[in-house]
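A further point concerns the way the authors explain their paired sequence and structure data. Showing the layout once, in full, would remove most of the difficulty. For illustration, here is how one protein appears when written out as sequence plus structure tokens:
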Amino acid sequence: MLAALCSAALSLPVLAAGNAERGQQLSMQGDGSGAPCMACHGMNGEGNAAGAFPVIAGQDEGYIFRSLQAYQNGTRVNPVMSMNVDNFKEQDLRDLAAHFARLPAPAPAPTTASAEQLALGKRLAEMGQWDDYLPPCASCHGPANQGVDENFPGIAGQHASYIKQQLQAWQQGQRKSDPIQLMENIAKRLSNEQIDAVAAYLASQPAAQQ
């Protein structure tokens, strides 16, 4: 029995590891037809709050890779991202993921949110609002919303503009990359005030450092 299991394990395909140094070069060069990653996400993956371009530095390597694949195959729809990664091969995506995952996440930007808004955002993010069937963000995204492996990204320290944009996309049924529609169902229960509050609070929190 043991021999059979070992034989089966040896026959499984071995996934190629990402080469972070090569990924850094690809991030500056692009895929040959679109803009390089650094044009929107910055030299160090810090993103751009004004353009709602997310922080990708320090995210889980597997999550970044899966997201890039989703943009390529249309599971996740974003015309700009799809256009900029469509010519990358699978190994290129793995290398890019390895590069951005090893970068330190930036410190959160100073917040302009009021104390009341931050308090509401903290309650939603950490405790939820069960009377309205709203579980806390941390129940999936982990303690302090730092992320849980490749399935749930870290959202602490993410730009408020991006968090708001994505919650609205889930809410409006424009984002379909969750096969069980967990985020869509939660987002549809959020008011505009709650979206602004939870986005502001999460953006004010430090991201995990790898």
